[in-house]
Amino acid sequence: MNHPLPTGTHRDARLPAGERAALLLREMTLEEKCHQLVSVMPWTLVRPDGSDSDEAEGWLAHPPGHVAGLIVDTPAELAHLVGSIQRQAVERTRLSIPVLFHQEAISGFLAGGHMAFPTGTGLAAAFSPELVQEMTDLIRRQMVRTGVRHALSPVMDVALDPRWGRVHETYGEDPYLCAALGVAFTRGLQGDDLSRGVLATGKHFLGYALPLGGVNTSSFEGGARWTRDVFAYPFEAAIQLAGLRSVMNSYADVDGIPVGVSREVLTGLLREVLGFDGFVSSDYTTLEQIVDRQRVADDAGEAACLAIRAGLDVEMPTPFAYGQVLAAEVAAGRADVRDVDRSVLRVLRAKFELGLFENPYPAERIDVTAVAAEGAELSRELARRSVVLAKNAGILPLAPRALDLAVIGPHADAAKLQFPAYSYASWREAADAVTSGELGNMLGAEDVTASWYKAMFEPVDPEAFVHERFGANSLAEEIARRARRTRTEQGSTLTRLLDEEAVDRAVRIAQEADVVVLALGGGSLWFTGERTEGECSDTADIALPAAQARLADAVAATGKPLIVVLVQGRAYALPESVRDAAAIVVAPYGGPFGPQAVAEVLFGVTNPSGRLPYSIPRHSGQVPVYHHQKAGSGYRGPLPPNVGRHYLDLEATPLYPFAHGLTYTEFTLADVSSDRTTTTAGAVRIGATVTNTGPVAGATVVQLYVRVNTKGVTRPAQQLAGFTRVDLAPGESRRVTFRLAVAQLGCTNAARDFAVEPARVDFFLGFDSDDRRAEGTFEITGEPRILAAADRAFLSHVEIEHV
User: Fold this and answer.
1) Which tens digit of pLDDT belongs to each residue from 581-607?
2) What does DSSP assign to residue 389?
3) Dihedrals φ, ψ of 446, to 5°?
């Protein structure tokens, strides 16, 4: 028999989520409130088989609001454990509040049995927001199926310093590109209706990707205008255009205060200025670091008081300062219960929006084989679009079955290197390190971590794992399918020569080959193992590791035609032997289809269309070098009379600029048009005709850059204001028109208001950030217009018409 829903209580699904949250809050004790703001590891509540842990009963007296780090080998196992924990929360606690499970989704749902996709800079290199949204729409359905409804993604950091090891997780150096992909990522994850969606988390707010000295977690030394206008831009866009529901704090200090306890950043800027109304999740162990590393609090209680007042809503991954400690601080009068209530309301409202109170459990049946194959074609297409042809002296594409090739280098026969940190394959390698005692506290876990992993996983060989689980092949294997003959030698690892004999073997097969493919680059792992990138894996020198440079020099000395493939997540400064190669291909950590995508470009199966999401410097000493440097600064500054270049010893320009990328055909831009004037409340239309004048079909990325000549405040010498990918057959043309709202061109003015003001705007259209093949100017007239976040425009609109 069906009973009517109770009215006037939080169980009434007809009420708005915020109202239901307020009704439930009234029923909660102080301890229950404070524990809604904490996360625990899964083994705190269950054993690997889903039965109660020894601690479960104690935790269920004051149940946690969130669960972290639940990673298992199949979606069916994951759903079983999620269901077991959810039943504890719903069926065995006083208020039956469902738990919110969170997991990473940077390049695919970080859970066994799901497809992997290219890493962040790979997604950015594709310049295809629509495919990113398609990817996260799939990830959304996968996460909902298993009951994990909170994704700790996307990474919206604007990454300006390649010394920092986490660049590959980002969308690169440009705030507009970061915003476009962050919005697409958020829209796909959250969907049109959160009751069928997953909370997206913008991270790391704010300035995390420009740490002092390039060292992870170091302070961010940026002024208020730069912080607001550049680094907050992607977050603000995702908040205003996609309704971003969660944000994660940066570990960094901003203006001398750690973000986790900065009311100025988390409340003043994020909520009051940018308009965010979701909840803020702490990056893992933030509050421990407030005490132990940054030392702005003496103990957990002080950290709790600072953080809850600042607006840090949820502590992850385990309780240190929230939960019982926070409750004690409130009881003692040192923390304000009204701050606690605000944070609890934000969390409860999210749970109601997700429909967890009505549908707390994951799918009962999951077809593991079908799930594993989901997204394969999409991952392959993203990998193809992410490959950048940086240089080609006519050697590419190679003729199939016509040449003997030598494939040499650390990336020649290592498919596992295509899977960086925050992918499942890399996580499994780290989990095995935990169980073997090589790696201790990978995920903020307790001593039980190793025993949990031992019960969950059998140790695997990382290379065999990606072959068997994802069907990944190495670059040498993919090239062998297309060449007449292929021979392979590693020559060196990522960071060390194997021995002189190994180099000699590499030189011998190079001498006997028609063409050499030198497969170099980086590798990202999770805190352990040989790597050049990753979290807490920063480098003082971004030069290609010396061992690889030595190998490149030896192979180049043979005089054989040399094609260099650089597999990397961030920029490396390249030795002369690499710079002088006949061709250079730059590829990201592409996931299972990364090597296939590169091989297809080498042999002309795919006409490359990728664009660099970061500038590649000539030397480490140029760092940071990025295209939107301010007018008069860096290589954007004018040279004094009789001075030939900015540095005495080197050009200041990048080796390859942002958005650079070649194809196997040629494109032109013609018939540029634009409105001549608009008002501070208006918009302009800027258009051109793009034509494929070459012999084969291909795609290019038409880009719009502007320079706003605002009075009184230094602005970027140029800023990306729009882009679109265009596919064209030989001889085919399209008319591309950007509609650019003036509200997209605001900045923090001399009076510290965010505004658009009368100004001359110079623009250019081209195929990379230094390609000024089509230029123009328009005027903004009228009165200055102060903009609230809701008044801003963030992304230009593009129309593509047949000609």
Assistant:
1) 999 999 999 999 999 999 999 999 999
2) E
3) -90, -170
Closest CA to 151 of 161, 159, 142: 142
518/507 Cα distance (integer angstroms)? 11
- The SS3 of residue 279 is strand
Q: Which helix (H) or strand (E) holds 83?
A: helix 75-91
Q: Number of helices (H) and strands (E), helices first, in the chain?
A: 24, 27
pTM of the model: 0.97
Task: Kindly state the DSSP code that residue 184 receives in the 8-state scheme.
Answer: H
* Phi-psi category of residue 164: left, alpha or beta, with phi > 0 → left and psi -120 to 50 → alpha: beta
Tokens at residue 155, please? Answer: 């990474």
Q: Which helix (H) or strand (E) holds 453?
A: helix 449-456
Q: What is the pLDDT of residues 677-707, one digit of tens each?
A: 999 999 999 999 999 999 999 999 999 999 9
Q: Kind and range of the H or E element at 734?
A: strand 733-741
What order of strands is seen across the sheet that includes strand 774-781? 677-679, 774-781, 759-766, 698-708, 719-728
Nearest of 149, 82, 145 to residue 353 by alpha carbon: 149
Two structure tokens written together for 363: 């799918």
Mapping DSSP onto H, E and C, the string for 631-677 reads CCCHHHCCCCCCCCCCCCCCCCCCCECCCCCECCCCEEEEEEEECCE
Integer angstrom CA distances of residue 433 from 33, 48, 103, 291, 444:
37, 19, 20, 28, 15
Q: Which two tokens stand for residue 217?
A: 């977690």
| CA dist 213 → 210, 360, 465, 539, 575 (Å) | 8, 45, 36, 9, 23
Strand partners, 797: 739
- What lies within 8 Å, CB to CB, of 91 at 6+ separation is none
User: Please, what is the Cα angle at 169 between 537 and 462, to 5 degrees?
Assistant: 65
